[in-house]
């Protein structure tokens, strides 16, 4: 079956511009996660969605970052007024349900470069 | 707070050698889950194995084996008879019972050479 998909695969933007990154989770997975992978910080948790519950935004690094999940499926991560330190690979993952037991399945990521 | 430490930044071995990747974790939870993920050069993280905090039985799956020891808070991963295709970054990760996020180690870059 189809895995987690993300678009675009690469995004180059100028400092100060807004960007939107998209994630399509595996069908039927109720939990969706965003992570960021950068050279200096490793893999960092950003935000977590579970069904219709309020998202866990505890990992978002600043108020320039926001995310939404429509209809319990597709999610969009938005970064406003991008900065060079936002350059990283943004990874989306989904799992069957929000139990620590369930493994997370990761997408291929979006590589963001802020010039 | 949860923490995962992978002290080995990079390991290089010659094909057919055995290699062990170390992982040490910290958590105050009594129920938790440990994972190993592989990230090949293509970039996509691939799930390898999960262990819960109540299951200390070690496992062998083909060329892979895992050693989970609660007494030392370690969850080590061994590849027997390594192959070039095993070259990748390996991440150890920790989740609490709620499953709201994974805490990752910094990863170990494994290079298997001919």
What portion of the residues of chain B fall into strands of 2 or more residues?
A: over 45%
- The level of helicity of chain B is under 10%
Which shape of chain A, going by the Cα principal axes?
globular
Rg on CA atoms of chain A, Å = 13 Å
- Determine the oligomeric state from the structure: heterodimer
Instruction: List the uncertain runs of chain B.
Output: none
Number of strands of chain A: 10
- C-alpha Rg of chain B (nearest Å): 14 Å
Structural class of chain B: mainly beta
Enumerate the spans of chain A where pLDDT stays under 50 for 5 or more consecutive residues.
none
Largest sheet of chain B: 6 strands, mixed
**Helical proportion of chain A?**
under 10%
Number of helices, counting only DSSP H or I runs of 4 residues or more of chain B: 0
- Mean pLDDT of chain A, nearest integer? 93
Biggest interchain interface, per-side counts: A-B, 27 and 27 residues
Distance between the termini of chain B: 41 Å
- How many individual helices of chain A? 0
The biggest beta sheet of chain A, please?
A: 6 strands, mixed
Class derived from helix and strand content of chain A? mainly beta
Distance between the termini of chain A: 37 Å
């Amino acid at each position: 079956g189809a895995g987690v998909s993300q678009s675009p695969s690469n995004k180059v933007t100028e400092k100060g511009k807004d960007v939107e990154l998209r994630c399509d989770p595996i069908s039927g997975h109720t939990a969706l996660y965003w992570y960021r992978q950068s050279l200096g910080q490793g893999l960092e948790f950003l935000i977590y969605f579970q069904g219709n519950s309020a998202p866990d935004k505890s990992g978002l690094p600043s108020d320039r970052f926001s995310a939404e999940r429509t209809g319990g499926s597709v999610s969009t991560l938005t970064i406003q007024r991008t900065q060079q330190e936002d350059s990283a690979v943004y990874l989306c993952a989904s799992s069957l349900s929000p139990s620590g037991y369930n493994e997370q399945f990761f997408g291929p990521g979006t590589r963001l470069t802020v010039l | 707070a949860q923490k995962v430490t992978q002290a080995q930044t990079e390991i290089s071995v010659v094909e057919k050698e055995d290699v062990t990747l170390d992982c040490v974790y910290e958590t105050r939870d009594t129920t938790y889950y440990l994972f190993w993920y592989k990230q090949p050069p293509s970039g996509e993280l691939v799930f390898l194995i999960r262990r819960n905090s109540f299951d200390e039985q070690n496992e062998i799956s083909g060329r892979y084996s895992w050693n989970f020891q609660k007494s030392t808070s370690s969850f080590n991963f061994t590849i027997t008879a390594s192959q070039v295709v095993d070259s990748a970054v390996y991440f150890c990760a920790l989740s609490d019972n709620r499953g709201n996020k994974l805490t990752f180690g910094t990863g170990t870059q494994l290079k298997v050479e001919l």
